[in-house]
Design brief:
- By secondary structure, this protein is α/β, with parallel strands linked by helices.
- It has one domain: Alpha/Beta hydrolase fold, catalytic domain (Rossmann fold).
- It contains 8 helices and 12 strands.
- A 9-stranded mixed beta sheet has the order 1-2-3-5-4-7-8-11-12, sandwiched between helices.
- The chain is globular.
- The N terminus is likely disordered.
Length: 313
């Protein structure tokens, strides 16, 4: 269970209070300002690394937000892999957050990066009655095939990354690998760096699957900010970002929506400091594009616009 009486400091920061959450149905950390609330709330979700994205949440808390960072797989007792993660898990997290006096759920946003950006858009589209804004760093415009911890398992029958109401969310499967893909994949298994961008680009040629899996971003009940890198080598986030904004425009989305694409940035674009942080073992073999310096510059340049969106809801 969460230890709600324990009030720690985030990274020694006297201005931020941390409340760890460990329950059978929720693993995460709430960071909030060390001042009277309630503060505007942000649900922070990570990507395929599977950890609690508390660094981003602590950064937001320093700016005046009550930010709940949650893990959703890879940490016991949560699922081991990013496979058919129930979207209901996150509504349960919001139920918990709504009971905290530090958080104002009438001003709730969700922020995610990479697969977490995909998730942030899915959640906001599924729950317009709860979520008032989205910040999606290097996201996808569609829901993707599940990514098991053992990449060889991706060769088996594909499954969705997400579920809702007990049913898999429609997804785009990875395209059948070419000989070049197979060679690159084997190189990855033996420790060589690899880019998956071309695999994602080919998968987007599956028109029927893409149509079914495209996230209904027009359902989002608030502003949307998408951030991407033109040199992203993990997947084509700048193309996904363009698709997201195009769909919002086609549906006459009545809230502000903007795509900030940084031509020299890669996949490590995120809250300031993200690109400079050490990467988990295994993830350092994924080619992200850009460089820590270009990604950090883009992260800092865009930060004021992220905060402006989150403050304005």
């Amino acid at each position: 269970m969460e230890n709600s009486s324990w009030r720690g400091r985030a990274a020694g920061d006297r201005d931020v209070v941390s409340v760890p959450v460990s329950r059978p149905g929720l693993i995460g950390v709430l960071h909030h300002p060390n001042s009277a609330g309630p503060h505007p709330a942000v649900l922070v979700v990570g990507g395929s690394e599977g950890s609690v994205p508390e660094y981003a949440a602590a950064q937001l808390a320093r700016e005046g937000f009550a930010a709940l960072a949650v893990a959703y797989f890879g940490i016991a007792p949560l699922p081991g892999d990013l496979v058919e993660i129930p979207l209901e898990y996150f509504t349960a997290a919001l139920d918990w957050l709504g009971q905290r006096p530090e958080a104002d759920l009438d001003r709730l946003a969700v922020l995610g990066r990479s697969r977490g950006g995909e998730l942030a858009l899915l959640l906001a589209a599924a729950h317009p009655e709860l979520i008032r804004a989205v910040v999606a760093y290097v996201p996808s415009s569609v829901a993707w095939q599940a990514v098991p911890s053992d990449p060889r398992a991706m060769m088996a029958t594909p499954r969705s990354s997400w579920s809702r109401g007990g049913a898999p969310v429609p997804f785009v499967p990875m395209a059948r690998p070419t000989a070049a893909d197979a060679a690159e994949f084997m190189g990855f298994l033996t420790g060589k760096p690899v880019s998956f961008r071309s695999s994602f680009e080919r998968a987007m040629g599956q028109e029927a699957a893409v149509a079914a899996a495209t996230i209904e971003v027009e359902r989002i009940n608030g502003p949307v900010l998408v951030l991407s890198g033109g040199q992203d080598q993990l997947w084509p986030s700048e193309q996904f970002g363009a698709r997201i904004i195009q769909r919002l425009a086609e549906h006459d989305h009545r809230f502000p929506h903007r795509h900030l694409c940084y031509p020299d940035a890669g996949h490590l674009l995120g809250v300031p400091g993200t690109a400079l942080r050490p990467r988990r073992e295994g993830f350092d073999r994924l080619l992200m594009g850009g460089s820590p310096e270009t990604d950090e510059a883009a992260s800092r340049d865009s930060w004021s616009q992220v905060l402006e969106l989150l403050t304005g809801i």
